[in-house]
Amino acid sequence: MKIIKSGDKMKKAFKILFIILGILLALVVAFLIILNIASLPTPDFLRNEKVDGIMMTAKISNDDREPIIRTFEENEYKNLSAEKLDKLKDRIYGRVEGDIPVIDLNIDNKVYFNFYLKDEIVKPDENPKIRIYASASHYKDKDADKPRIVNGQLNLIGNDTYIYEFTRYRTQFEKYFLEPIRIEIYYSIDGEKYVSTLATYTGNATEGTDYFNNENLDKPIPPEV
Fold first, then answer.
1. Number of domains in the chain
2. Same-domain pairing of 33 and 58
3. To 10 degrees, the CA torsion angle through 129, 132, 192, 55?
4. 68 plus 18 within the same structural domain
5. Is 132 helix (H, G, I), strand (E, B) or coil?
6. Domain range holding 17?
7. How far apart are CA 14 and CA 134, in angstroms?
8. Per-residue confidence at 2, pLDDT binned at 50, 70, 90?
9. What is the mean pLDDT of residues 133-149?
């Protein structure tokens, strides 16, 4: 009959306890790292992704921040499930406040687009089409629960840059507004169809404006288009 000393039992118990504490500590550290990453702006290398060597870039107004852009083959994009589309929307709007650029309608209301194939700038087969989803900026908007959809076409300037001029698409209820805009660009290169999507805001406020001290308008202003 083998006799197990009480000291050996204690050593074994302490060893198990240290292992458990070590695992818990590792889990806490991993959680804090993930939490810290989630609270940071989207890093540059995750802001724009290629598909089949195709990439679209967008310079937003006079804002130096890069938007978050995702590109898809058109058929793949149109077949995204509602769940995947919602996740995509969340991603392109950024991780934290201030993660994406703003179209300053007072200074420069344009977005400048370029298209690339294997890192070489190219012109799409035809002028790309744009679809804008403009969400309400104020709770009093009668259709606040659904975006307004605006369709258009990009315009070529110079040899290879395309532009689109934005405006205010929803009713303005306050002196300063910040209107969420989701953009889809439809285009084809070498006969293959693609969709690139990004998000931004349109606004009329100067830098440093405190939206919490905004002023209600006596009479709301209808959309500009």
1. 2
2. no
3. 110
4. no
5. strand
6. 1-39
7. 61
8. low
9. 92
What is the distance between the alpha carbons of residues 29 and 21, in angstroms, rounded to a whole number?
12
Q: Are residues 53 and 148 in the same domain?
A: yes
Query: 219 φ, ψ to 5°?
Result: -135, 115
CA distances to 6, 44, 110 from 177, rounded to whole Å, are 73, 28, 17
Distance CA 173, CA 139 (A): 9
| Whether 121 and 174 share a structural domain | yes
Check whether residue 140 and residue 58 sit in a common domain: yes
Contact by Cβ (8 Å): 212, 106? no
Percent of the chain with pLDDT over 90: 67
> Residues 77, 151: contact at Cβ < 8 Å?
no
Instruction: Supply 102's token pair.
Output: 């703003």
Least Cα distance to 206 among 136, 137, 96, 106 occurs for 106
Q: How far is CA 171 from the centre of its chain?
A: 23
One domain, residues 78 and 183: yes
Residues 181 and 82 in one domain: yes
Quote the tokens at residue 4: 């197990």
- pLDDT tens for 152-201 read 999 999 999 999 999 999 999 999 999 999 999 999 999 999 999 999 99
Distance CA 113, CA 60 (A): 9
30 lies in the same domain as 64:
no
CA dist 52 and 42 (Å) reads: 23
For the chain, give the number of residues: 225
